[in-house]
Structures are given as structure tokens and as C-alpha cells.
Amino acid sequence: MQGLVFDGDRRVSLRDFPDPKPGEGEIVIRVTASGMCGSDLHYYRASAESTPDSTTACVGGHEPAGIVQELGPGSGTGLAVGDRVMIHHYAGCGHCVPCRSGWTQMCTTGAPLVYGKNAHGAHAPYMQVSARSALPLSDSLSFEAGAAIGCGTGTAWGALERLGDIGGTDVVVFGQGPVGISATMLAAARGARVIAVDLEPERLAQSSRFGAADTVDAGSVDAVAAIRELTGGSGASAAVETSGATAAAASAVEALAPWGRLCVVGLGGTVELDVRRYLSRQLTVMTSWSMSSVQQLECADFIDRHSLPVDDLFSDRWSLDQAEEAYIKFDKQDAGKGVFVF
């Protein structure tokens, strides 16, 4: 089969790989949807010198959904050939406390597998995964929705879970890319009044369609002043930072009300706190690393029960032979989410 590899310097290629065969405790899925995630751009934009050579390169992509194609020995009785599944894109030992609680990415017995990073990912027709990583996907959710929930949308859910009860509060979401727009949609559905912040007017317009009550164009106004005005001068009870920009993180801290909570999920930025400046405001700043497999199932169930328009996150659907064009478009970060469909 052919799979997509990130070559660095904003280049991708399709390379030949053996068709996967499931080992002990593994399955093979036929990939039907493989989402493009903003974190993939870190590999896409990396220098060619820092990327693996042809003998160690992995198939990229970590937002898979598909159909169980083959079961390996010891894969358990919970799955059957033909089942629809989404993937929690990590695999650990399966025995330590984090693994047993669904936090496979925090496995304590060794470096976990991260599909699309140090194990073959989903930008290919077939994918070999740990059977524990395969989660049931409801017939009422599309494969594209399952792919989004597997990382981008699930990451937004994980951040909101870290913040706790947000019903009836003002929540600011910095960045309205795929993760941010998912946070806007989910926070609104959970009863928050959402203020969406971005530099792109097109993304702000989209955020209104996903439930944002107000929008702030950080490229044309002082975002902190605008948020304080929208909250009657008090600031926001909670914020999620998804852009990975240091300036956005600084604004998020400054825009919080006393006792406010900030959850940071965007990669690449720096969060700095002047203790003297913020001590008396009793702020809480936290990070969130995607979500557990348990939370992934809860997120999918919530989306299903509330009929949330996850499919509308996707602005572009591609075939694998359009990989170069797909990533050139996605790299511009001015549209919605992209997905390879098989």
C-alpha cells in the first residue's frame, strides 16, 4: 500500500509500505477517514534534516476512523470484523494505572506509541493498531466525525473537562481553527456564553455559526479590552487557548476574572506569569493533553445526543493522491479542517 510521509520543508510524499498484519493484541482497520490536524503541521514545516530517513519514516496522520478489517491473536472478543471504529491515537502497556484509566499517552512503563509519530498512522488505506485503541463509532456519526473526535474535537472536549463546570459562565476561546471552533461548539452546547477570538474574520464568522455569542478580531482591536467590555468589566470566568501563540496566551491570562481558569492546549507558545501581578486574582492556569479514551467515548456520545454539526468542521475532503495539494492548502490555516477519505 501507499502511505503519506512528512519529508520536512513543507513537502510530503507517498511511499510504498507493506500491507499491515496484526500482531498479538492488535487489529488492522480499513481507513475510511483520516483527519488533518494542526499538530501535523509541525512535522510538515520541520526542516528536512530533522525528519526520519526512508528506513524509519512513519506514515503520518493521527485522526483515523474506519472499519475493522482483521483481528490479530489475543485482540479480545469486544471487536468483530466489519465494526465501525474510531481510534484513540496512542498505545501503551495496557497494565499501568494511566493505561487502565484510559490515559494511554501517559503510560509509565515506557514510551507510548503515538500513531503518526513513532508508529504508522492513518494517511494510508490500512492501519495496524492496538485493539485497546479502537473505540466503537455509532452508526449515527460519520467516519469524518469519528476522525475529528479522535484528536481535534476530542482535544477541545478534554480542555473543557479540565475547566470543569462552565454552564452559565463566560468562556473565551482563543483561536478558531479546528480545535478552537470545536471548543466553541462544545462549550456553547454545555451552556456557556462563548466569546471567540481570532485574527481571521472568516474564522470568526464561522465561529458564530458554531455557537459563539460574540466575536473579537484580535487583529483590529485590543482583545483584552474587548473581552472586558463584553463581560461588563469583570473578565471571563474561563478561557481556552488553542492557537499556540504566546501573545494569545498572555491575553488569555489578562482577560480572566478573579478566580478565573485558563486551559492551554495550543503548542508552540509560552505562558508567563508575573506572580506579583496576578497573585491577588487567584487564577488557575492548566494544560490539557488531548483526552483519555474514556473521554473520547464521552465526547462522541455528547455530540451524538446533541446532534452537533461536527461534519461542518470540514471545509476540504481529499483523496490520498491529492496529498501535496491538501497540505499546501491546510498550511495556510485560513479555512476549516481537511480530511482524507478512502
UniProtKB/TrEMBL annotation:
Cofactor(s) listed in the protein's UniProt record: Zn(2+)
UniProt protein name: Zinc-binding dehydrogenase
Keyword presence, Oxidoreductase: yes
SMART domains registered for this protein in UniProt: PKS_ER
UniProt domain Enoyl reductase (ER): residue ranges: 8-340
Keyword hit for Metal-binding: yes
Naturally occurring in which organism (per UniProt): Rhodococcus artemisiae
Signal peptide (UniProt feature, chain positions): none
Entry keywords, A to Z: Metal-binding, Oxidoreductase, Zinc
Similarity section: Belongs to the zinc-containing alcohol dehydrogenase family.
Gene3D superfamilies: Medium-chain alcohol dehydrogenases, catalytic domain (3.90.180.10)
Annotated SUPFAM superfamilies: GroES-like, NAD(P)-binding Rossmann-fold domains
